[in-house]
Amino acid sequence: VQLVESGGGSVQAGGSLRLSCEASTYTYSIYSMAWFRQAPGKEREAIATIYLTTGGTYYADSVKGRFTISRDNNKNTLYLQVDSLKPEDTAMYYCASTLRYSPLTWRSEARYNDWGQGTQVTVS
């Protein structure tokens, strides 16, 4: 599965963005997708996931209440609505997907088979 992110940019603190991740296959055939981010000098962290069949979602505590993950199966696209942005949200944001069930936690990078190239979010 090829994943292409878009929607990043530079915003002021308190602002919003909507990140998109378009998949090269039908999203209803994907088991789960997730958003990760990596700030300079830090490890990549999982911030949100969605199970494509049930719509169930989970979030990291650092973004809960400010970020919303969703998908549009008609457009084969995953979204991340990011609101109330803080300077510490500055990072490269990546989407990832797995076609099959995995016993690994959604926070584990090893769970996901396919990754996008990333989209940069800068908050000042």
Nutshell version of this structure?
The chain has strands at 3-6, 9-11, 17-23, 32-38, 45-51, 57-59, 67-72, 77-82, 91-98, 114-115, 119-123. It is built from no helices and 11 strands.
Describe this structure in words.
- The protein has strands at residues 3-6, 9-11, 17-23, 32-38, 45-51, 57-59, 67-72, 77-82, 91-98, 114-115, 119-123.
- It contains no helices and eleven strands.
- 0% of the residues lie in helices and 47% in strands.
- It is globular, with a radius of gyration of 13 Å.
- Strands 2, 4, 5, 6, 9, 10 and 11 form a seven-stranded mixed β-sheet that branches. The protein has a four-stranded antiparallel β-sheet with strand order 1-3-8-7, with no helix packed on it.
- The protein is mainly β.
